[in-house]
Amino acid sequence: MASGSERVFDAKEVGAVLRGRRKSLGYTQEQVATLMGCSPRLIGEMERGRATVGLQKMLDYATGLGIDVILSARG
Predict the structure, then answer these.
(1) Strand, coil or helix: 24
(2) Could you tell me the end-to-end alpha-carbon distance of the chain, in angstroms, rounded to an integer?
(3) What whole-number distance in Å separates Cα of residue 16 and Cα of residue 42?
(4) For residue 4, is it within any domain?
(5) What is the pLDDT of residue 4?
(6) For residues 44, 1, 13 and 53, what is the CA-based torsion angle, rounded to 10 degrees?
(7) In terms of CB atoms within 10 Å, which of 26, 35, 58, 75 comes out highest?
(8) How far apart are CA 49 and CA 26, in angstroms?
(9) Residue 25 in contact with residue 1, Cβ under 8 Å?
């Protein structure tokens, strides 16, 4: 995310952005799981872009990492 924003088109790409942000902040999956009150397994599933992870959980994780999710219409 060099430019500060990135287009993503599927859950795996979102997960990669989340993983990159977590790592840039210097946190382990276990640390962010503790901070968020969830399991490290859930963090791993979100970072792998598992389709079974709820959207709200993914949004909460992004917000917790300081990532704003902005939706905009094309065209």
Answers:
(1) helix
(2) 23
(3) 14
(4) no
(5) 75
(6) 40
(7) 58
(8) 20
(9) no
Asked if residue 29 belongs to a domain, the reply is yes
pLDDT given for residue 32 in this prediction: 97
49: Cα separation from own chain's centroid: 9
Please give the single-letter amino acid code of residue 58.
M
Write down how long the chain is. Answer: 75
49: which 2 tokens?
């872009």
Give pLDDT tens digits for 3-22. 578 889 999 999 999 999 99
CA 14 to mean position of chain CA atoms: 6
- Residue 37 domain-assigned (yes or no): yes
Q: What is the pLDDT of residue 57?
A: 94
Provide the CB-side half-sphere exposure for 42 (13 A, CA): 17
Looking at the structure of the chain, the number of domains it has is: 1
